[in-house]
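User: Structure with copper (II) ion, tokens only please.
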Amino acid sequence: MRSFLSALAIVPSLLGSAFLAHAAPSGMPRGADAVAHRASSCNTASNRACWTTGFDINTDYDAKTPITGVTRHYTLVVTEETNWTGPDGEVKGLVMLVNGSIPGPVIQADWGDQLSITVVNNLKENGTSMHWHGIRQLNTNLQDGVNGVTECPIPPGHSRVYTFLAEQYGSSWYHSHFSAQYGNGVVGTILINGPASLPYDIDLGVFPVSDYYYSTADYLVEYTKNNGPPPSDNVLFNGSNISPLTGKGKYANVTLTPGKRHRLRIINTSVENHFVFSLAGHTMTIIESDLVPVNAMTVSSLFVGVGQRYDVTIDASQKIDNYWFNATFVTNAQCGSSVNPFPAAIFHYAGASGDLPTSVGTAVTPTTCEDLTNLTPVVQRTISTSGFVANTSNELAVTLDLTQPDQLFTWKIDGTKMIIDWEQPVDQYVMNHQSDFPASDNTVVVNKTDQWVFWVIENDPTIGISHPMHLHGHDFLVVGRADFNSPSAFQASDVSSFNGNNPTRRDVVMLPPLGWVAIAFKTDNPGTWLMHCHIAWHVSGGLAVNFVERPADFAAGVSAADKTAFSNQCAAWNKYYPSHDPDHQDDSGLRKRNGVSSRFLGVGAIREE
Ligand SMILES: *[C@@H]1O[C@H](CO)[C@@H](O)[C@H](O)[C@H]1NC(C)=O
Ligand SMILES: *[C@@H]1O[C@H](CO)[C@@H](O)[C@H](O)[C@H]1NC(C)=O
Ligand SMILES: *[C@@H]1O[C@H](CO)[C@@H](O)[C@H](O)[C@H]1NC(C)=O
Ligand SMILES: *[C@@H]1O[C@H](CO)[C@@H](O)[C@H](O)[C@H]1NC(C)=O
Ligand SMILES: *[C@@H]1O[C@H](CO)[C@@H](O)[C@H](O)[C@H]1NC(C)=O
Ligand SMILES: *[C@@H]1O[C@H](CO)[C@@H](O)[C@H](O)[C@H]1NC(C)=O
Ligand SMILES: *[C@@H]1O[C@H](CO)[C@@H](O)[C@H](O)[C@H]1NC(C)=O
Ligand SMILES: *[C@@H]1O[C@H](CO)[C@@H](O)[C@H](O)[C@H]1NC(C)=O
Ligand SMILES: *[C@@H]1O[C@H](CO)[C@@H](O)[C@H](O)[C@H]1NC(C)=O
Ligand SMILES: [Cu+2]
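Assistant:
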């Protein structure tokens, strides 16, 4: 197996098709075949660091990939259902689902596989686009799935194929980037097998935890324009929980094997709720965050911001029993709350009774939304921070504008509320060598090649709300941040506290309330990369910026086939949209709108102009 894989690494194109046939035997759902069989033989319970010849946990995955020649095919069908009975037994008026469930199917692959995912839009009137959160998309910006930026939305009745390489490994998720549609259920998980920084016996798989609302996301987007975030109605653990209203539904129930070490892949797929997780009587050891393997770090509880992922190991070394896995909320810090006061899942030791856990565990009640910044990536990055001078071109201020007549809460970054144009995505300008982006695309052009560029993101000095800031297309270094407990505005002298010596590297970081965070990424990936707050209501409210990275290189590198696919999809959307605009349909006709009548907020809810 090892030599076969290394041979593949050298001549993938020769062996690729034979391997594909092997990977997806006829009769099996394509892509759903046993990924475990494909893992390398040297990756064993006692040696998870090993992967295959020439590739292990220390391999710099930005520098080389164990190309397998395997393409994993998946089809994801997005549908809309009314009066749908959810996993907690409560009926929701309207949901949008991937293959009929929340969450949708798990996308699985091995490090170095190619993914080919067909997304079918069977929604009634919404467009859609699917974003593969945290996937690097090196030189594949058009596969990033951000409508209005990297593509036009896929109109109802149409589909598109996304193809990209699994350049990194670990746990992540996918979600719609059309308005706040993912809050209606268009979400699923991604698991890419690879080496790990700690041995473990059993991979329990993905464990997404999400806030869950009985109202539609479309309603909540409207609601949060003028109101504070509502508490979630429930919290789902891997798609399950009991209803806090009626007790219907069932707890998620994970079986642990006594004496064994388990890997759990925690993924926060919330739209608004941040959680602190703890497993009664146990510690958890972090081995990876946001697709970046880290040196093992043991914690008794773990804050996970929206969009963040932590792979942890859990030793089943306690008494054979049942234990609560609790999600608790941060107190008084506005990072989420739920109608369900004690969201929890059961962790059941094999051999224990079928009863509910009895011990309540120790309450963990942090008072800030602070995430960890003391993780040490296994594959190191050390950069010099001394040349950095903060100035208006690299400071991005987040502001809450309370002066707009049509909505109370308008979020801006760098002075602009993003209002993307579904009909003319940013990448269309870039491919046409145009730089006259509409101001509302909120673009920041970055021309430098293979340089580390620094950004200071400054929070509103008047509003004490944290934001989980997510960057597409890059893992960034968190080089500095204000203190969560006594945050202060950024000052030039803060640069002296920057740390470029292998700091925490990830793709979502918490921006302290009233404070700042400084990040650095290397300009090695041409294309337009969205950076936004991952709270759905805030990105819908405009809290996003587009880094247009090396536009000339991007335009030069796009293949003719990708360009054609891009324009065909835009032609289909632009043919569909104006005549099906629900805004038009809802319009009483009493008020005529001018020109292209609707514009979009964020990634993009509808706003009346
Ligand atoms: C999703 O549903 C479609 C249509 O039923 C099916 O062809 C496809 O295999 C499903 N995908 C997965 C990953 O199960
Ligand atoms: C959904 O349920 C509501 C309330 O029970 C009912 O009025 C409505 O007709 C139902 N809609 C559909 C499409 O079944
Ligand atoms: C998306 O679908 C929802 C539910 O049907 C609807 O309320 C909303 O107006 C639609 N938005 C667009 C832009 O089509
Ligand atoms: C969560 O559900 C997925 C899909 O059914 C499964 O593969 C995974 O093992 C589950 N996770 C846990 C921790 O049980
Ligand atoms: C998920 O992220 C959201 C938003 O950052 C946060 O409010 C919530 O506490 C996180 N949930 C968990 C379980 O960490
Ligand atoms: C949890 O799962 C185990 C194993 O399937 C089962 O024996 C036990 O009864 C379940 N616990 C509850 C409370 O359902
Ligand atoms: C954990 O959740 C259970 C079930 O909801 C609850 O009874 C218990 O008090 C919670 N423990 C903590 C520490 O939050
Ligand atoms: C801002 O500082 C950077 C160095 O960090 C420098 O390259 C750039 O020219 C400066 N811009 C202005 C407008 O001073
Ligand atoms: C980037 O390069 C282009 C082409 O050389 C130039 O027109 C543009 O002004 C540059 N933009 C910035 C922000 O440096
Ligand atoms: Cu936010």
